[in-house]
Design goal:
By secondary structure, this protein is α+β, with helices and mostly antiparallel strands. The chain has 2 helices and 9 strands.
Length: 123
């Protein structure tokens, strides 16, 4: 049996702002609204479906994005331009740093809703 992740819901205080933040950092375009969601499509067909959940305590989630090496520096620059600190590890304890693993690079940063996002160039 073949199983693929199709989509995941990203709870946020404001679905439009949350989708715009992630899209802006990654260099993507926000997709259309689909019912109560604002969508962001990724290259492998998975969508992030942003949902406004202002009444919830939003639990921190981790989302990792595999990006081309050629795009990594531009993404880090957009993270910094957004006024967001990035870190070398998931504990967010070494600011303004990247990690090197599996022949690639990566970094972690927080979204305005408190989700920990990661960009990496090698899986």
């Amino acid at each position: 049996m073949t199983v693929e992740l199709n989509h995941t819901i990203v709870h946020s205080r404001d679905k439009h702002a949350a989708a715009a933040f992630v899209a802006g950092v990654l260099g993507l375009e926000v997709g259309p609204e689909a019912g109560p969601f604002v969508t962001l499509s990724l290259a492998n067909g998975v969508t992030l479906d942003f949902l406004s959940s202002p009444h919830l305590d939003i639990a921190e989630q981790h989302y990792a994005f595999l990006v081309p090496e050629a795009e990594f520096d531009a993404i880090v620059r957009r993270i910094k331009d957004a006024g967001v600190t990035h870190y070398s590890g998931p504990r967010l304890d070494e600011p303004d740093a990247i990690y090197h693993a599996k022949g690639g690079r990566g970094t972690y940063f927080k979204s305005p809703d408190g989700h920990v996002l990661e960009v990496l160039t090698a899986a």
